[in-house]
Amino acid sequence: MSNTLDVLLSHRSYRDYSDQAVSEADLDAIVAAAQRAPSSINAQHTSVVIVRDAVRRARIAEIAGGQPWIAKAPLFICVVMDFAKTNAALQLSGTTQVIHESLEGFAAGAVDAGIVLATMMVAARGLGLGTVPIGGIRRDSQAMIELLELPRLTFPLVGCSIGHFATEPTQKPRLPLDTFRHDEKWHGVPEVATIKAYDEELLRYWKSIGRADGLPWSQNTASPYSKVYYRDTKLVAARQGFVVDK
Known about the structure:
The protein is of the alpha+beta class. The chain has one domain: NADH Oxidase. It has 10 helices and 4 strands. The chain has a 4-stranded antiparallel sheet, sandwiched between helices. Helix 2 (24-35) runs antiparallel to helix 6 (103-126). The longest helix has 24 residues, at 103-126. The termini are far apart.
């Protein structure tokens, strides 16, 4: 098995970090790898903001709903959907940018931000570092925009905490592979028995690591997905120029 496959198949989220700093060489390698990630039509409409300052990381932890590992990890990288960058190119060519006003544009930006995030995480894990992705920054997108001084036509989609881990977490079980893999055509949603079996497996996992508050998958998913859990995302995105009416 290649080192890359080993990293991918052993994925877990690291939330316990030591005080050891991430070296400049490692950070440079992670960022360089992320920049090489593919993007739609080579638009390169993502940017990253690197946050090492402890006070700012503590603020991000607060914005994300109280996630202490953001403050503890020595490095936080925010992945930004950056149509301000592409707009500069269009202005140079004498063209008016409209893609940021469409659902297609937002989808392309979000997909490419996800590719950048995944690339950063694999690069960091390949260097022996721990990572945990942070979508909670969208809990208060406006606060993130102000903290990072992001201009119009940009949006902070997701972040990632990176550092030397103090402890090795266990690997959380997943649904059976056949609920994910569909050959040739879509084969339907998981059967009720499959969901119930996974609920029970996940409860056993929570118990094995001492998480008395751990919920079965169906219940844990129902809590956020029965509502729009970050309600200001659309409003703040519109303020940033992402009106999504095309």
